[in-house]
Amino acid sequence: MTQMSATEAATEPRSTIRLSVNGKDHVLDVPDRKLLSDVLRQDLELTGTHVGCEHGVCGACTVQLDGDPIRSCLIFAASAQNHEVTTVEGIGDDPENPADVQQAFIDSHGLQCGFCTPGFITTIDAFVNENPHPSEEEAREAISGNLCRCTGYQNIVKAVQRTAELRGGCGQDCCDREDTEVSQ
Fold it and tell me: Fewest CB within a 10 Å sphere: which of 70, 117, 140, 150?
């Protein structure tokens, strides 16, 4: 990334924007071209959103915009006005009482170094909201846009299905077993 000179930074167009993040409204004066990921981390100090590749490829910066996962390194903060932004802190910010998707990662040993985890958490939370009975194949497809450089994805796939279980649903394999048991 090219560093901006002090003169360029001083003359860069700025705007006052209103953001709703994790249920709280914020009014911020930011450069027009400042990315949502940078505003979250630098201006709002929500450092759970990580920035990896800065090209929307790795998924570490994933947040939810009106419940849908998006790459916060690809949109300007001003573009998020009039939408609800949910970061990993908005999903769960209490280590003593983790959110269901966070507990699923703990239960399934889906954590490695943790750098990619916030992006997975926001992605999986949105996915299980839309699909409360994911099959293993659907779980793999749901996380296919998030990269984990530490290890394979097996335990993260288990975390997707564990999240569904904790929310009262189950993976497709579970439903298939119940159907088979009922028909016998």
Answer: 150
| Torsion angle of the four alpha carbons 176, 181, 182, 183, in this order, in degrees rounded to the nearest 10 | 90
pLDDT at 177: 47
Using N-to-C axis directions, what is the helix angle for 100-108 and 154-166, rounded to 10°? 140
Distance CA 19, CA 82 (A): 7
**What would the pLDDT profile of 61-118 be if each residue is shown by its tens digit?**
999 999 999 999 999 999 999 999 999 999 999 999 999 999 999 999 998 899 999 9
Partnered with residue 18 across adjacent β-strands are 27
Query: Rounded distance, CA 27 to CA 16, Å?
Result: 7
Partners of 10 in the beta sheet? none
